[in-house]
Design goal:
Length: about 170
């Protein structure tokens, strides 16, 4: 069904890949954390380099994207889906302002931690490989004029270099 088709952006070390994918009604975070698949199957694919973010260097009908190569992803690049936006709406959480560094990127946003747990406890307890942050902004560190903002960004924890936060949650 076409209503299960969503657009997403995937950031690797050198490229931003935009494509459509069948979600089956699931959030992008859930698809990325699905251990049964190691790839994302995309259609209507556009590839851009980080240094020239508005220039499409390649277009393809379809592509397989290795999940392990994804630094972070943005859901619904063409119009964020409500399901991804409301990731934490039904769970009582504490918000923490964070700075997360990945290779070539600095991300800022809000981690949502269930209950009154601290950030360390959340990271130890989180079972998925990909962790969402809200109110997110990513800056390309090699050319800081290039930045991306989104309601939700989903970070591959394998590439996290450092997570910085205040000692108290955001109010």
């Amino acid at each position: 069904m076409d209503d299960d088709l969503d657009v997403a952006e995937f950031f690797t070390h050198q490229h931003r890949i935009t494509g459509s994918l069948r979600t089956g009604g699931q959030r992008l975070t859930d698809l990325l954390n699905d251990d049964l698949t190691s790839t994302m199957e995309l259609s209507k694919v556009e590839v851009r380099r980080h240094l020239s973010p508005n220039k499409v260097v390649a277009t393809h009908v379809s592509a397989l994207l290795e999940k392990q190569g994804i630094l972070f992803a943005i859901s619904g690049a063409g119009g964020a889906r409500a399901a991804e936006r409301s990731f934490y709406r039904h769970v009582d959480t504490t918000e923490w302002d964070v700075l997360v560094t990945l290779p070539n990127f600095e991300l800022t946003g809000m981690f949502h931690i269930r209950g009154t747990s601290d950030l360390k406890t959340m990271l130890l307890a989180w079972t998925g490989q990909f962790i969402p942050i809200t109110k997110a902004k990513a800056v390309f560190t090699l050319f800081p004029e290039v930045s991306f903002s989104a309601t939700v960004m989903i970070i591959n924890r394998s590439y996290i270099e450092i997570i910085c936060t205040d000692t108290k949650p955001a109010l």
